[in-house]
Amino acid sequence: MRRMRAEPIVGVARPQGRPSSHPAPRRPDAQPPAVPPPSMSAPAGPRRWGRRLLLSLLVVFASSPLTAAGPGGQVLAVLIGGPAAVLFWVSVVGLVVTALRDGWRSHRQPPPSKSPARPPKVGTGAMPPGRPTTGGGPVRVAGAEDNWVKGARGEHAVGVALNGTGLPVLHDRRLREGSDANIDHLVVAADAVYVIDAKNLAGTLTTTGDQLCIDGRDRAKLLAGVRRQADEVVAAMSRLGVTAPVRPVLCLTGTARPAGVQFAGGVLITTPDTVAQVITLSGLLADDQRARIADLLAWAFPPAVSN
């Protein structure tokens, strides 16, 4: 049994020459853009106090002729020139203080480097084995990931064949809470509920009585696995008060395929080409009964992978 994944099997490469909304990735050895050097203008503090000092001095000089215009002019000169004189002396003190402070700060800072620091090199370690890599060409999948891709494609082919029957079908359902095992497909047909396990296997398949062999190797575990899944479905239907036959099916999608439909160890052995013939037999379950059983099974066996 295989746990289905939500991500796509192989990513689609972007055609060359099409505009992209994402910026192109920076090469590890590319130089960063040059940063313009900071301006060498005077600090903002001394400039600000210098402007205040000059403005206050101009106001004092402008208001001094008003003292010769009688008592009213003298009062006006005091009202204008007094605050300007105070601002003048405050500006003098502020200019001296900020100049000393900026000089002390610049003295504590280290001298600038003659050559800019080189940006750290980005490591280009090898990709972990078994993961897709792109080097300007098509994506290549190898190792255990390749087995998963083959199995997923075979399982998809079985799902397409089942969906074409028009029967209620549940795909990739969790076998039980807290388990990684899953049921590939559940089909509620007119004659029974079919538990279908899809396997992608290579070799020459032979069946003798209750034995299933591939290239002479006993593969009884495959039959036992789908029988256990069917037993779980029978137990769940019993708890829900549903009465219907349950039949295990092993659907083989690789080169190891049976000739037509075979039976071994209580399990029907089919392929994507013959599985529809098995599950579309006539039976006693009406359409409304099949829909009700499918709803109960969907509740009892939730999706193995949530979106």
How would you characterize the overall build of this protein?
This protein is α+β, with helices and mostly antiparallel strands. It folds into two domains: 44-108; 144-300, Trna Endonuclease, Chain: A, domain 1, CATH 3.40.1350. Helix content is 38%, strand content 14%. The chain has six helices and nine strands. It has helices at 44-63, 70-108, 144-163, 220-239, 275-279, 287-300; strands spanning 169-174, 182-188, 193-199, 205-208, 211-214, 217-218, 246-252, 262-264, 267-270. The strands form two sheets. It has a six-stranded mixed β-sheet with strand order 1-2-3-7-9-8. Strands 4-5-6 form a three-stranded antiparallel β-sheet, covered by helices on one side. Strand 8 and strand 9 form a beta hairpin. The longest helix is centred in the first third of the chain and has 39 residues, at 70-108. The two termini are 20 Å apart. 20% of the residues are buried.
Helical residue percent band? 25-40%
- Order of adjacent strands in the largest pleated sheet: 1-2-3-7-9-8
Number of strands: 9
Poorly predicted ranges (pLDDT <50, ≥5 residues)? Answer: 1-22, 35-42, 119-145
C-alpha end-to-end distance: 20 Å
Q: What series of H and E elements makes up the topology?
A: HHHEEEEEEHEEEHH
Number of structurally distinct domains: 2
Shape: rod-shaped
Q: Fill in the CATH topology of the largest domain.
A: Trna Endonuclease, Chain: A, domain 1
**Discrete helix count:** 6
Provide the CATH top-level class of the largest domain.
Alpha Beta
- Average pLDDT, to the nearest integer? 75
**Any idea what the CATH architecture of the largest domain is?**
3-Layer(aba) Sandwich
Tell me the major beta sheet. 6 strands, mixed
Radius of gyration over C-alpha positions, nearest whole angstrom: 42 Å
Structural class: alpha+beta
Work out the strand percent: 5-15%
